[in-house]
Amino acid sequence: MKIQTLAMALLLTGSVAAAATPSPAQAVEQDRHAHADQQVAPWTELRSAPRIELGPRPFWLADGLEEGPLKRSLQACDTSNLQPSTFSIGHRGAPLQFPEHTLESYVAAARMGAGVIECDVAFTRDRQLVCRHAQDDLHTTTNIVAVPALNAKCTQPFIPADPDSGRPAQAECRTSDVTLAEFKTLQGKMDAFDPTATTPQAYLGGTADWRTDLYAARGTVLSHRESIALFKQLGVEFVPELKTPVVNMPFEGEYTQEDYARQMIQDYIDAGVAPADVMPQSFRLEDVLFWIDQFPAFGRQAVYLDDRALTDETVSLDYMADLKAQGVAILAPALWKLLTLDDQQRIVPSEYARNARRAGLDLIAWSVERSGPLAQGGGWYYQSVQEAINRDSDVLTVIDVLAQQVGVKAIFADWPATTSFYAHCMDVNQPDKRLQTDD
After folding, report:
1. Which family does it belong to (predicted)?
2. Number of helices (H) and strands (E), helices first, in the chain?
3. What are the pLDDT digits (tens) for 388-412?
């Protein structure tokens, strides 16, 4: 399959003409219909879901595990009949090696067996939806600062570093600074920047040494609607995340948070996607409750991304039961909140995890394969279990505890082959083999 040819099939032109005096809801609807004729062209060479190929990394990780049942099971696993796994979510695609939220990254995730792929959803100046991790990350995830005409439109155009004063290079470019047509001219890149840069081109560097730029030569950025068309062709399910805006809402006094949340769901309705195949998610509980109320078929599997600080309240069974009573079905915290160490320094479910399951909430964890080498405890994502993390292979132990003891529904991964491998070998997609939480 030639990804570059696929990328050339994505053609989106034009912008939305402003209506004279529309209401906020009318403005959103007019914008949507103004783009109705801009259909995603066929994926000319993608006739079916790609064959799953795990590559060497999962096996390398399994070989590095301490001797024990998990290592033996994974090493003995027959991977000749791999199928996509909904346990394995491609976090922004496969950004350990491919530019995040690009066509290339998404196809790589599907090839690694991710049964669900994430498009983080932000909006452009003309109120169209695109796949970006944050509204204000174009300066680190695309080449925008090296495109003079678009750099000039940034909230903070590129400023070179000043070695004499020690001032680092600066830039801030938002999706809401550009139109959809302008966004589509950008090139996705590895999420990084060089704070010492004195030129825009140098600013595009800075990729972590445990990632790579080998596959950054092509980075085809996508609109949200294009991602839906691609994911349908790939045969995967959908996890769109409504990103919390950095601009004041209503945007330009008209486009409300509710308009934004409604527009994201409407894209799936327009594309004929079954609601059961979509898990809309947000860090704002208000968004999740809005979907539950306004789009109940989608709201049933809406995901609340819980980043609240751990306190007696937010760990409590009462907190979890209250979320459940409001209609929340799926809770997704950072993986460290779901884990702790017992008195023998073994990784076990945390009180937070136990109470969430007791309240009847499904759990999704984020994110593995995102922290680089784990020899020094794994950093932020592993902060509650750092004393038990001392090698890259420990990620499989973490996945095993999350699956078998916490009983998570799925795990986000920057390299989905690892979670796909585990899911296949340990049959975590078989309901009768999933752990049931004790009361």
Report:
1. Belongs to the glycerophosphoryl diester phosphodiesterase family.
2. 18, 13
3. 999 999 999 999 999 999 999 999 9
Residues 59-85, mean pLDDT to the nearest whole number: 97
Q: Which pTM value belongs to this model?
A: 0.89
Distance CA 8, CA 11 (A): 7
CA 47 to chain centre: 25
CATH architecture of 41-135+220-426: Alpha-Beta Barrel (3.20)
CA atoms within 13 A on the CB side of 172: 8
**HEC sequence for 375-433:** CCCCHHHHCCCHHHCCCCCHHHHHHHHHHHHHCCCEEEECCCHHHHHHHHHHCCCCHHH
Sorted by where each begins, the domain ranges of the chain are 41-135+220-426
> What stretch of H or E contains 330?
strand 330-333
Is 36 in a helix, a strand, or coil? coil
